[in-house]
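Q: Could you fold this chain for me?
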Amino acid sequence: MKPNTPDFEDTMNAIGNLKDREIVHEMQESFLDYAMSVIVDRALPDVRDGLKPVHRRILYSMSEQGLTHNAKFRKSASVVGDVLAKYHPHGDVAVYDSMVHMAQDFSMRYPLIDGQGNFGSLDGDPPAAYRYTEARMTLLAEAMLEDIEKDTVAFRDNFDATSQEPSVLPTRIPTLLLNGTLGIAVGMATDIPPHNLSEVSDAIIELIDNPKATTEDILKHIKGPDFPTGGIIYDINAIRSAYSTGKGSIAIRARTEIVETKSGMFQIIVTEIPYRVNKATLLQKFADLVRDKKVDGIKDIRDESDKNVRIVIDLKKEALPNKVLNQLFSYSQLQETFHLNMLALVDGIEPMMLDITTILENYVKHRQIVVRRRTEFELKKAKDRAHILEGLKIALDHIDEVIAVIKKSPTKEDAFYNLIKKFGLSELQTRAILDMRLQTLAGLERKKIEEELEEKRKLIAELESILASAKKILGIVKAETLEIKEKFGDERRTQVIPNAIGEFKAEDLIPEEKVIITITRTGYVKRLTPDTYRLQNRGGKGVIGMSTKDEDEVDQVISANSHDDILFFTNKGRVFQTKVYELPESSRTTKGQALVNFLELKEGEYSTTVFTQQKDNPSKFLVMATKKGLIKKVSNEEFSKVRRSGMIALNLKDDDELKWVKPTSGKDQIILSTELGQSIRFQEDDVRPMGRLAAGVRGIKLKGKDLLMSMDMINKEKNAKELQVLIITEHGLGKKTNLEEYKVQGRGGSGIKTLKVTEKTGKIVSMHIINKEEEADLVIISREGQTIRTKISAISTLGRDTQGVRIMKLTDNDKVASSTVLNPEVIK
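A: Sure. Below is the predicted structure, expressed as structure tokens.
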């Protein structure tokens, strides 16, 4: 820049006008101006029409271009270009992205733009460029702009003052709640979920009818968010809290279903996913969980979606469907949390956190202003027309005089002023008379003017009465709300569950039912329902209970409740715990799944006995017995928290093994039986409680190679006269004997005879204490997997020193492995 030039002089003058200013103050003011600009003009919606400036400008531009719902589609580029040129001084990407969002039926509960072409997908696919897509407004969007030409809202200059734009739309629909919004401003953010139009309309009517309505009253109509993608939301208390304060979290779950295929395999079908979840990302997450082994039991994942979501998850044969589903809820976006934050601009300038009642109150207030301004506009228009009609009527009533005045006037201007002077007309009336055609003098035309005038006078009276009554204005708002509801209302898509997800456990999705559990000698376990085995007569062959390997055989069979905790006690004296429903559910003939998949068993360690902890009837003690006749009583509390790696239940001596565990009240009686037919009955008090690490005391004195075969408890509340001892032998014989034949002895003795063991009977394998009067069933399973279920009442009652009767017919090489009694609750 050269000295002594005009530019140089201007620069020096400007420098001379500079003033010193603290940089802190300058930064504060500049940042505040920027923050308010972002808050008011970009990021936050107006509580009245629920729109951010960019969305409002897009809809207004489309309205100006005549892109109504029944108009021909027009290129999106023309809309974007018009918005940029006239109203929105920002990038074209911002405008087009906003336009796309308003056209996506998975983003907007009620789309405002009808798009033609690729507008993106639920998989996160981007939309086509705006030169390829076309758009027009939906009918619902037109309702947002209805009456805008009637001075219902204030207009303001656009960014370069070349045209005007509405500061807010007169909208007949409460868009802020219907479609929700998401926005991040400077130092604040908003996230409002979409809702159902019918419910919101009912809430508005409630507020109009009852201005003192509380949030509780509003929530009788609005059940919660209603997402375009459906899903399930939980916890009415969380919803109520969020709507009362304007801030809170609402849990959303996908809609899922567990189905069984014709081949007996299970699938998880996902038909609705949480709001704003990318389906492709969700599927990738499923794959990652399977790869990282965070979720077990998934065989295959397929996306079979078309216009509707359908994700199919094939499960492995041994998988627990409900457990897999819960894992997916825990580790993936199949369950999400919507963090509700209802922040919006009040009166277009002040950002405020609003509860749901305040949002509706602001909307109703806005509609009252719109109705009043519209009425004032229509009143002015009606009065103007009536004024003209009154002038025409005067002229028609004095038509001859009017004609005479006009004829005598030398010029048009003289006629104009002479008519005003002669008849006291206004300039508007006089101009209308001079413009009147001769055909107006016809009788019918004259009558039309009189009828129109009468109509306008009635309209003026009606409009004035509306403006004079706030109640009538509210009545119009209510009527128009009902009209919108009837025209656009639909059914709720998102289901509301009153309970909180946090109150759900894995077992809440699993039916509580009685099951039978079988365990083989090599450690395969499975569960199945009791009705798997049909009832047969005593002495039958039974049905195939499971397929076993040549070297394997069934060792144990017990009945339990699917929600019980199950404790596995091993030959090494250790104990492991799991849930009954976590055991694989299998068919009658399959062998099940290896226990090593559930329990951290050591080499040479296997489960010898199983005990189920009933959640509704916990026992006080557990009594344990070993194959060499030792017995031990331990407090049940010692096993309340069994580690996944297992814990010691008792210390064993020499080559002894833990074989039986039974629950007890602490005051019951214990009965033991040996393989060779000896039995002893004694008081539980004879066994003092011990710690887990104790070895126990002698329960029965064994002779020769005899080993303890079974243990059962005699409940203290039972009458001994009503009880019997049921004995089953390895060759399928059995009998019932009255308990009274077993006298109470001291612990540690040799006992008395309970069955005459011969080659025909084989050794004793099971003993059960049963009630004479109860209609219980007996399930027996052989080592080769043959199973029979029969009525216990069909088994003969015999003395202690007898062989029994045939209960199950076995093949030459097969033997009874175990048995269990199904009590009346299981049978029902």
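A (continued): The chain has 19 helices and 43 strands.
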